[in-house]
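Follow-up to my earlier ticket, as requested here are the two runs.
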Amino acid sequence: MMDPHEQASQRIDNLEMRFAYQDEVIETLNRTIVEQWGKLDQALARIKLLEERLREIPVGAVRDAADETPPPHY
């Protein structure tokens, strides 16, 4: 049986290992969040660009779907 000093030392060692692992996990999650934030910023920039390009299309250039003739297989 371990004496109380050895038990405390082992508990501290276990806590230090868990802390080091958690620190690594937090760092990995942080890098992932930063990467995802960058991708989100890129996606939002592309959406904004597409919105601007859609506004540039003249209203008369877009035909109504009802005006389309059906394809030959109908």
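Run two:
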Amino acid sequence: MSAPEVSVVIPAHDVAAVIGEQLAALAAQRGAPRFEIVIADNGSSDGLAGAAAGFREDLDLHIVDASAQHGASFAR
């Protein structure tokens, strides 16, 4: 597999209930350059990683720990 041309970074905190909607939309992309998804988990306590894990087969998906400081700016 070749390296991705684009990284889509999603800063996230307690969005397990809705992350599937975003990931499904990204998985449905056609004609886009090769991309990876980076979910920067900013200290979620709602099972975010588990909710996103089902998309690993369809997406080049990475979940990184961004919980050292709270806020979207740090997560980005």
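The only thing I checked on run two: The mean pLDDT is 95. Let me know what else you need.
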